[in-house]
Specification:
single chain, about 240 residues, alpha/beta, Rossmann fold, 2 domains, 9 helices, about 15% strand, binds zinc ion
């Protein structure tokens, strides 16, 4: 009996050790190196490897500003890091979008807030995360831009408006091959609620900006519903 209990104890100990390893082992999202206690999500070297845009220090219009040289008036724009295939930024965004790492989104949002504490993108009344279709949100479990927005909002003491702008339908534009059909589809992507008129200046938050087409469509939808509302844009990453 005593031997049995001893063996059972051994099995439980081994099982819990294994489980502990499973639950508590943290590896770098980019290089897979085991993280030390002070490191979160990335090892120190990989955090250093994130390529900064320094858009916030640039006096002339940035590459991001240049995307919005359209009739839509955007007040301020900023993106913290460059997004590139194979780079640390891609590993972070992949984990944020597909690996069920919801706390990572809030962490990165708070990180953005700390880095941009003195930037004019902070001078807004509310934050609007780029909406995704409810079906996509259900499949993924969350909207990654909403997590970034929550992290930012907590640091800056701002509300996150989740319901005032919503995605209308799945973007089926890819099935249409002509350029104009696609643009028309992007333009009709969002529904806005009348309450948007209560705000003076909103900050739209996204994870990665590539062409800016979605943000332009979203800004247009907001302007159409509330022409007086000023719009600024902020993203974690900007495609190089
Ligand atoms: Zn690493």
């Amino acid at each position: 009996m005593a031997t049995y209990i001893k063996q059972l104890g051994f099995v439980i100990k081994n099982y819990s050790d294994g489980l502990g390893h499973l639950v508590f082992t943290n590896v770098c999202l980019h290089c897979n190196k085991e993280l030390v206690v002070e490191e979160r999500y990335l090892c120190w070297l990989c955090w250093e490897g994130l390529e900064r845009t320094y858009f916030e220090l640039q006096k002339t219009p940035t590459k991001l500003d240049q995307l919005f040289w359209t009739p839509i008036e955007i007040k301020h724009t900023c993106a913290l890091y460059f997004y590139q295939k194979g780079a640390v930024s891609q590993s972070l965004i992949r984990a944020l979008k597909y690996d069920f790492k919801a706390p990572l989104g809030i962490y990165l949002g708070a990180h953005m807030a700390t880095m941009l504490n003195d930037h004019p993108v902070r001078n807004v009344d509310a934050i609007i995360p780029v909406p995704i279709h409810p079906r996509k949100k259900f499949a993924r479990g969350y909207n990654q831009s909403e997590l970034l927005a929550r992290g930012l909002a907590k640091e800056w003491g701002l509300p996150v408006l989740k319901k005032l702008v919503q995605k209308k339908k799945h973007n089926t534009s890819q099935t249409k091959n002509d350029r104009f059909g696609r643009w028309d589809n992007v333009q009709n992507m969002f529904n806005t609620q009348a309450e948007i008129t209560q705000y003076k200046h909103v900050l739209i938050v996204d994870d990665v900006i590539t062409t800016g087409a979605t943000l332009a469509a979203l800004s247009q939808a907001i302007k159409a519903a509330a022409p007086h509302v000023q719009i600024s844009l902020l993203s974690f990453a900007f495609t190089k």
